[in-house]
Amino acid sequence: MDTSEPMLPLDAEDVPASHPRAPRRRQGGVASTDVVMSAHMADNAEVFPQVLGLHVEKGATVADLTYGKEVFWRNVPAGAYRLLPSDLKLGQCWRALPYEDASVDAVVFDPPYMEGLYRRTKDALAGSGTHRAFQEAYSNGSVRAEGSGRKYHDAVLEAYLSVIPEAKRILRPSGRFIVKCQDEVSANRQKLTHVELIWAYEAHGFYCKDLFVVVRRNAPVVSRLLKQEHARKNHSYFLVFQRQDHRRRIDYSNFSPWLRDDLEILGTATVCFSSEFFAQYGQTETLPWIDNPSRKGV
Ligand SMILES: C[S@@+](CC[C@H](N)C(=O)[O-])C[C@H]1O[C@@H](n2cnc3c(N)ncnc32)[C@H](O)[C@@H]1O
Description:
- This protein is α/β, with parallel strands linked by helices.
- It folds into two domains: 36-218 and 229-251, Rossmann fold (3-Layer(aba) Sandwich), CATH 3.40.50.150; 255-298, no CATH class.
- It has helices spanning 44-55, 132-138, 152-162, 164-170, 193-203, 257-263, 265-281, 288-291, 293-296, and strands at 39-41, 61-64, 82-85, 104-109, 171-181, 184-186, 189-191, 206-215, 235-243.
- A hairpin with a 2-residue loop joins strand 6 and strand 7.
């Protein structure tokens, strides 16, 4: 299947008057319904091979930092990629990986993604009784000792952000960073984890190139429901980022410059993550809105 994106013709007003008229581009390719779709009513093992198939070349070196029970790899033909599995359960932490600098083409990251899996005491971890298998599969099975001591949803975010230095170090320039996440309601507040991650990773030089939605087939049974406040989540995401921090300036952004500038949203993200976060996990020097002191606000 040809997955190259069709080139769209330029609008006339996009071509500056000082420029000679650009030749009109013609669309190539053939009409087909055989395309990879963004939303799937399926499980991770069905969707992950499609994410890889579209974004990672066959034979590439892929480091899966949270290999877990290798569910993601169940439908990926053995030998299609050079797989480097690691996991806390295999003795490696994503904060200190045993790989050379710029040695992998893609990183896969699927940490415990809900706040209930980052509780202080083991008894308070989400997933008990009939859900113990879930706890076993999705958390590291113990209370997280490392980190700043942030709690609840902040602990989830911190885990997602704490991988950035190692992901950047081991990824080759323009390599892919595939992140699994799910939004959550924490302390009765809507936490759109995928939005937070897209903002935060972009501030560290990752462009969000693609997004897949995975919808559960079965409906969860909710016990002790008094009054429903938020739609019950039955979907999660694969986000596909491209490493761009090696470039002098970021070429792509998910956010329109005027939105970034006028609303200073990234300025806000920078404030959130700057003093504390950058001190802990390293500064990103390449991005203009971070280097611009007027945007720092701290
Ligand atoms: C959601 S599961 C991953 C499931 C996996 N994608 C699969 O296909 O089976 C999260 C995994 O993160 C691992 N983990 C938790 N903390 C970790 C850490 N600091 N370093 C490496 N792995 C960690 C857990 O051991 C668990 O296997």
